[in-house]
Amino acid sequence: MSTATFTVTGMTCGHCVSSVQEEVSEVPGVRDVRVELETGLLTVSAEGEVDAAAVRAAVAEAGYQVSA
Amino acid sequence: MSTATFTVTGMTCGHCVSSVQEEVSEVPGVRDVRVELETGLLTVSAEGEVDAAAVRAAVAEAGYQVSA
């Protein structure tokens, strides 16, 4: 297991949080996803390494961005 | 058919708009619902009179308020 954190920008409400949560949860290997609306903090735990590129793509799919 | 307008407060994104749209569409007699994110303008058309109390309750159910 490994854990990585990201900062997501553009989320304004609980629906946004749910969208990010859903998309990132579908990334292969991901076991746990936490999203904090106020700070944009996204914490992802996965079997093996967290695939950062896949997480970024999932966040984009939900309609938001990971800040660099 | 009649049409009534309301101002909804608290919507921050397209998901909020969808929630309001969905809930208000389920009010008996309602035929058309338009929601504008920027202004909070909610326009409801219904068979017969628009039931304003039911519309307010539906907006509250979605998690928002109709301003007085």
Structure write-up:
2 copies of one chain form a homodimer. Helix content of chain A is 34%, strand content 32%. In chain A, strand 2 (30-35) and strand 3 form a beta hairpin. The first copy, chain A, is globular. By secondary structure, the first copy, chain A, is an alpha+beta fold. The termini of chain A are far apart. A 4-stranded antiparallel beta sheet of chain A has the order 2-3-1-4.
Oligomeric grouping of the chains:
homodimer
SSE class of chain A: alpha+beta
Helix-strand sequence of chain A: EHEEHE
In what order do the strands lie side by side in the largest sheet of chain A? Answer: 2-3-1-4
Biggest contact: A-B, 6 and 6 residues
Largest beta sheet of chain A, briefly? 4 strands, antiparallel
Distance between the termini of chain A: 24 Å
Percentage of helical residues of chain A? 25-40%
Mean pLDDT score of chain A: 96
Low-confidence blocks of residues of chain A? none
Q: Output the radius of gyration of chain A.
A: 10 Å
**How does the overall form of chain A come out from the CA principal axes?**
globular
Beta-strand content bin of chain A: 25-35%
Layout of helices and strands, plus pairs?
The structure is a homodimer of 68-residue chains.
Chain A: E1 2-9, H1 14-25, E2 30-35, E3 41-46, H2 52-62, E4 65-66
Antiparallel strand pairs in A: 1-3, 1-4, 2-3
Helix pairs in contact in A: 1-2
Task: Provide a brief overview of the structure.
Chain A has helices spanning 14-25, 52-62, and strands spanning 2-9, 30-35, 41-46, 65-66. Chain A has 68 residues and is α+β, with helices and mostly antiparallel strands.
